[in-house]
Amino acid sequence: MMKVLQSSIFRAICAIIVGILLIKNPDDTVKGITIATGVLFLLSGVISCAVYFSAKISNVDEHVYDASGRLIPDIKPAFPVVGLGSILFGIILALIPETFIQYLMYFFGAIIIFGALNQFINLAQAKRRFGVPLVYWFFPSITLIAGCFIILNPIEAAGLPMLVIGCSLIFYGITDGINAFKINRLRKTQNNL
Predict the structure, then answer these.
(1) Which of 61, 135, 152, 181 has its CA 20 to 30 A from that of 90?
(2) What gap in Å lies between CA 116 and CA 139, rounded to an integer?
């Protein structure tokens, strides 16, 4: 029972610490996550290529026969195009994360702006047939402003989700810690009865 309480408290403390770090340094956290993702892609690609070359080298002298004793033609391993792509993508993510984040944010910003413009067009068409209340124009306006903010400030925009996640982790950590104490107290009360 004490291990459960300790693991809940440890989990809550970790969540609070990570949440505080995400709130304090969201841009650095996005950069760190991008670099870590790049390293994982790089490792995946290197392993894929190593497996390919290992199979190619070990496959040279081996012959495989079927149950009838006929020679099965050599099955050559496929060249690891995806592995090479993973290596290249991993290098880009790990060595120049800001550039990748910036271009990705431009892409997301453009999608959001086009989505807002599409909503405006749909509302304008609907207004010709029906009366469209003014409040309906509010949401695409906010969406358009958000898209423009992302295009104008790509790195800052990348850190905003980290702020939300950080606040959520702090809230989770506090509630998980409180719940762990409450549940432990209820168990002790029930065991004493």
Answers:
(1) 152
(2) 8
CA distance 100 to 149: 18
- CA dist 42 to 16, 35, 55, 99, Å? 31, 10, 20, 17
3-state class of 77 per DSSP? coil
Residues 6+ apart with CB under 8 A from 169: 15, 16, 18, 19, 22
Q: How many residues does the chain have?
A: 193
> 3-class secondary structure for 87-109?
HHHHHHHHHCHHHHHHHHHHHHH
pLDDT in tens, 83-110: 899 999 999 999 998 888 888 888 888 8
Is the pTM here over 0.90, yes or no?
no
CB neighbourhood size of 140 (10 A): 18
Task: Check: CB of residue 166 under 8 Å from CB of residue 26.
Answer: yes
By C-alpha distance, which of 153, 168, 173, 163 is closest to 25? 163
